Amino acid sequence: MNKKPGKVVLAYSGGLDTSIILKWLQLNYNYEVVTFTADIGQKEELEPAREKALLLGVKPENIFIEDLRKEFVRDFVFPMFRSNAQYEGQYLLGTAIARPLISKKLIEIAERVNADAVSHGATGKGNDQVRFELSCYALNPNIRIISPWREWHLNSRSRLLEFAERNQIPISKDKKGEAPFSIDANILHTSSEGKILEDPSEIAPEYVFQRTCSPEEAPEKAAFVKIRFKNGDMIAIDDEKLEEHELLEKLNQIGGNHGIGRLDLVEGRFIGMKSRGVYETPGGTILLEAHRAIESITLDRGASHLKDELMPKYSELIYNGLWYSPEREMLQSLIDYSQKYVEGEVTLKLYKGSVKAVARKSKLSLYSEKQVTFEDDNGIYNQGDATGFINLNALRLKILAYRRMKNN
Q1: What CATH architecture applies to the domain 184-299+341-361?
Q2: Which is the catalytic residue, given 17, 191, 211, 275?
């Protein structure tokens, strides 16, 4: 009696690479392929992915397309921004933060259709293979993961195209030959890398940028935007309340129009090599500036400094694919606790690629104008108290100085 084929859930974009993977799985594994396509704000038509999956023999009931934009921003992007996360001090983790959500949905669909395997299109040189697989194993330790790029011999563009033509996989005209660079996009950012960007000594051409205008071409007049926060999360822009993903999209449009959020970075990949990426995160760049500004008046010095110390570790955990690790969850609890009183409004000035907070206010502010004024403070603060404070902090320094003088 023939055993019924198992099922594998493929993270499927509908592009050339994942279409080849779909066919390769059908030919090389005794699996029925189920496709999952996530809308995380990449601004691409998703129905063509359904049509191509059908063309390649996937059953209609095995094609899943989900709009995850709200969940992505609410449950992943906003929690990350509460920490002010930046990997290696610059990267806003736009690609890394999307992987745990996609992995979560892969596992959920696998359970729904009774699949015993999942597959992805990440290469064997990058970070995404680690992110996908660590997340999947954290959610289902028994799942089988198939990573074609680590198994097959289609390791060049020409071989991929030959396989596609041999198996009647549609190839877009712009894919006939070497792609100039690869792009990963979602509602938080775009990431471009490879080919023309592989030499970090060469300036990235202007056409690489998808989401932002050149700062030189941005409006000559500065613009101002107000962002309101509650519990550390953005809740309104210029007094307009929208869904979480709609707020980020609006901020993207505003930032993109002013050339904000461009980053050309050589980073240290988790697997050991360095890579160059050209990123665009217009809304996220504005949001980070605003969040730090509202924290400056609502967060205690000790809490703020502790957050700054923990941020690199938190960022590294996300970058390395450890969103579902206990240490990330522990840090998240601490970060979320710190945001209890982080609410209020920040005004930002946008001008030719730059964004700066220029005003901030909160009913929960720790800032006291009466304490810091250079005018008469009516006895609120006794400046003479600073003498004892300084003497106590100077005590050990004096002792060290006496020893040095005696030894000399």
Answers
A1: Alpha-Beta Complex (3.90)
A2: 17
Find the catalytic residue in 69, 82, 99, 360: 99
Q: Enumerate the CATH 3.90.1260.10 domain ranges in the chain, comma separated.
A: 184-299+341-361
Residue tagged active-site, from 74, 116, 182, 296: 182
Number of H helices, E strands in the chain: 13, 13
Rounded Cα distance between 213 and 322, Å, is 34
SS3 168: coil
What does the pLDDT look like over 185-205, one tens digit per residue?
999 999 999 888 999 999 999
Catalytic-role residue among 128, 276, 315, 362: 128
- Determine the Cα–Cα distance for residues 117 and 144; give it in Å rounded to an integer: 4
Dist. CA 51–CA 62, nearest whole Å: 12
Of 133 and 30, the structure prediction assigns the larger pLDDT to 133
What mean pLDDT comes out for the span 252-271? 96
Is 182 among the catalytic positions? yes
Give the contacts of 55 (CB within 8 A, at least 6 positions apart).
Answer: 170
In sequence order, what are the residues at sequence separation of 6 or more whose Cβ sits closer than 8 angstroms to the Cβ of residue 43?
Answer: 185
CA distance 72 to 185: 13
> pLDDT tens across 24-75, in order?
999 999 899 999 999 999 988 899 999 999 999 999 999 999 999 999 999 9
Catalytic residue flag (residue 128): yes
Judge whether 403 counts as a catalytic residue. Answer: no
Span(s) in the chain for CATH 3.40.50.620 = 6-82+93-179
Number of residues assigned to the chain: 408
**Domain 6-82+93-179 architecture:** 3-Layer(aba) Sandwich (3.40)
17 is catalytic: yes
Q: Which residues pair with 192 in a beta bridge?
A: 183, 278
Burial of 407 (0-12, 13-18, 19+ CB in 10 A): exposed
This prediction has a pTM of: 0.92
Joined tokens for residue 85: 């996360």
